[in-house]
Amino acid sequence: MKKAILTKLALIAGISLIIVHCSSAETKTETTTQEPAADTKVSSRDLNMALLDEINTALKDYRYPDGARKRGFAYKQADIQKEDFNLWAKDNVAYIKEALTKLPEDYSLQIIGHADASGPEEAEGNKKGNGYYSQIRADAVKDALVKQGVPANRIVTKAAGSSSPISGFSETDAINRRVTFQVVSK
Questions:
Q1: CB-based burial of residue 162 (10 Å sphere; 0-12 exposed, 13-18 middle, 19+ buried)?
Q2: Are 112 and 180 in contact (CB under 8 A)?
Q3: Where does the OmpA-like domain lie (predicted)?
Q4: Domain 62-186: what homologous superfamily?
Q5: Which residues fall within 8 angstroms of residue 134, CB to CB, at 6 or more apart?
Q6: pLDDT tens-digit map of 3-62
Q7: Is the peptide bond before 65 cis (omega within 30 degrees of 0)?
Q8: Are strands 155-159 and 179-185 parallel, antiparallel or unpaired?
């Protein structure tokens, strides 16, 4: 019963949109797309940039720990539990490997380590600072990815400290203790 009502409402909404669009007083202009000339060539650099954008759009959602099975790294740690990482790798490593094989050798996977805002950004006295902890997290995930078969020479690491907290969460929330990924030119 509900399905029939929803179907009728969707049909009425679609017809209404067609009527409004067709009866508009504005003059219509046809949009045409011009085909590229036969002698126009797309450079490999343009193709690489398009592919890079596509890969980085997908990688934007990749993070370890994933925030669901494990909220974030332990405070002041770069702990990777083998079972948890293997589950994460099962879902993500194949795409990372495939992405790197599609791109020329001068592109690398950049692993960016993050920290929460609990401590100082840089070392202060006996406190090592968020930069240090985010770097050791990135390095630990690099080592784990290499064990999964991702070539070490195609991975670079970077420490972001607490500069990029996840929106909607406290800056000191454990969910901010993570690594993220993107592909960059060497």
A1: buried
A2: yes
A3: 60-186
A4: OmpA-like domain (3.30.1330.60)
A5: 112, 113, 114, 115, 159, 160, 161, 162
A6: 555 455 455 555 554 554 555 444 545 544 555 444 445 456 677 789 999 999 999 999
A7: yes
A8: unpaired
Q: How many residues does the chain have?
A: 186
Give the contacts of 173 (CB within 8 A, at least 6 positions apart).
72, 116, 165, 166
Sheet order of strands, 155-159 included: 63-64, 179-185, 107-113, 155-159
20 is written with which tokens?
């409004």
What is the residue extent of each domain of the chain?
62-186
Provide φ and ψ at 46, rounded to 5°.
Answer: -65, -40
Residue type, 30: E
